[in-house]
């Protein structure tokens, strides 16, 4: 039985809590948050506390907190024997106080409060300072997910940066597509199968190998027609220009 | 029985040929292409020709050709009684000679030669000059797909532009993510579930409503750290800057 104290109550904390609760061989003994209200969801399901000095003993203290409070909270845990891990993509393991047994347990996924997540397909990026602690985190990940990877803090920074490109920036391009459709009274539904197919394609092929469109063909007449259609939005024109140019540079087609 | 002559032998022609062949109540009577070699795939399956003056009579002539040859080829069909349609996202119906019964049959999907496509989920964008011809195209689309939409040439231009954002540009962002991973010896596999979830999310929610990441949070310390990691690639820095700024403008968070 792995016993966990969860610190935090946001999207990541909530999703991890659900996954831990549904798995065998795990128990969330307690959830901590500094504010009383945000603990409502957890109150009926496990012990809760707003006092950092009253944390229950456990195997793992899991800090699913905002990046900037991780160092400060970790300093308050220096008397603890548990393995203290954070769940952030962009914070180094060194943000945790070095008196601690410390580690990272970063689920690489986009979480929304209203949307259920299939944990079997979430990769966990793990880091610890010794093989025993890494083993504990691996066991924890295995119990709720199929996959885990050992990723150093340096690599994790790069991974998080990549995730911004393939998730946050991609989502904004979806939003631009939706905006263009709305302005011409075209149902956004028409684009949905294309969005899904574009993401599905790169599950089995390298994205660089399946690039299509006017940029890689250097189809100037289509590119110019598109830029004209975008005349009203300087922001979207800039996105169009820089991405067209980037595709051509990437594929050595710059003329 | 709807009889079709297919003009072209590229990705779109090949995929449509397969879909038509598998459907009931349709028959591809003939495939035309100007070059003999490119007809090899079709030769054992139906009649083929390289002579535009020897097209078989049919209900629909389907021009799955490069955008710029559509007007020229359509001029050679002016004696024909068939409904002549092209499959291009960015070409107006008016590119087809106005002596013709003309229309557009545009499958909004990304086609690769090696990848099978599930036609049930492809939306067809249809256009014709009268309701009878539109009805014929609807019937054709229904036989191979669940969905068709009546879309004018003006709307289709905008739709094609949107498709460049949500497919071609998105795929390049995947390629950038892959590149960043490769440089740090991180398996790109880690990002694949995130890519799929990001696309799945917007099947049921507006992308503008589910934007996440450092840009929308205006998390300057993460943004600055990312820009520093991108120092070696001016192109990727520019993409990062313009998309971060666009997300903030879009969501009214520009500071």
Topology:
Two copies of one chain form a homodimer.
Chain A: E1 2-7, H1 11-22, E2 26-32, H2 40-43, E3 47-49, E4 60-63, H3 70-75, E5 83-86, E6 101-107, E7 123-128, H4 131-144, E8 147-150, H5 153-183, H6 192-201, H7 214-217, H8 220-229, H9 234-250
Parallel strand pairs in A: 1-2, 1-4, 2-3, 4-5, 5-6, 7-8
Antiparallel strand pairs in A: 6-7
Describe the structure.
The structure is a homodimer of 255-residue chains. The longest helix of chain A has 31 residues, at 153-183. The first copy, chain A, has an eight-stranded mixed sheet with strand order 3-2-1-4-5-6-7-8, with helices on one face. Chain A has helices at residues 11-22, 40-43, 70-75, 131-144, 153-183, 192-201, 214-217, 220-229, 234-250, and strands at 2-7, 26-32, 47-49, 60-63, 83-86, 101-107, 123-128, 147-150. Chain A has 255 residues and is of the alpha/beta class.
Strand content of chain A: 15-25%
Q: What string gives the helices and strands of chain A in order?
A: EHEHEEHEEEHEHHHHH
Task: Kindly identify the CATH topology of the largest domain in chain A.
Answer: Rossmann fold
What is the chains' assembly state? homodimer
Q: Would you identify the CATH architecture of the largest domain in chain A?
A: 3-Layer(aba) Sandwich
Low-confidence stretches of chain A: none
Biggest sheet layout of chain A: 8 strands, mixed
- Which pair of protein chains has the largest interface, and what are the residue counts? A-B, 92 and 92 residues
User: How far apart are the termini of chain A?
Assistant: 62 Å
| Strand order in the sheet with the most strands of chain A | 3-2-1-4-5-6-7-8
Number of helices of chain A: 9
Number of domains of chain A: 2
């Amino acid at each position: 039985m792995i016993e966990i104290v969860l610190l935090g109550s946001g999207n990541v904390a909530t999703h991890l809590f659900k996954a831990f609760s549904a798995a065998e061989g795990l128990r969330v003994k307690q959830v901590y948050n500094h504010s009383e209200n945000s603990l409502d969801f957890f109150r009926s399901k496990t012990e809760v506390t707003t006092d950092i000095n009253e944390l229950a003993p456990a195997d793992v203290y899991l800090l699913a907190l905002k990046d900037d409070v991780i160092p400060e909270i970790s300093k308050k845990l220096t008397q603890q024997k548990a393995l203290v891990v954070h769940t952030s993509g962009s914070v180094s393991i060194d943000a945790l106080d070095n008196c601690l047994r410390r580690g990272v347990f970063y689920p690489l996924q986009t979480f929304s409060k209203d949307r259920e997540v299939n944990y079997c397909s979430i990769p966990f990026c793990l880091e610890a300072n010794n093989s025993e602690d890494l083993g504990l985190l691996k066991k924890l990940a295995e119990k709720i997910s199929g996959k885990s990877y050992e990723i150093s803090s340096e690599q994790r920074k790069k991974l998080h940066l990549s995730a911004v490109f393939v998730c946050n920036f991609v989502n904004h391009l979806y939003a631009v597509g939706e905006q263009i459709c709305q302005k011409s009274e075209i149902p956004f539904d028409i684009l949905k199968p294309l969005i899904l197919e574009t993401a599905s394609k790169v599950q089995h092929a390298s994205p660089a190998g399946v690039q299509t469109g006017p940029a890689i063909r250097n189809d100037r007449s289509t590119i110019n027609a598109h830029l004209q259609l975008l005349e009203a939005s300087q922001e979207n024109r800039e996105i169009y220009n820089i991405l067209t140019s980037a595709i051509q540079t990437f594929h050595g087609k710059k003329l």
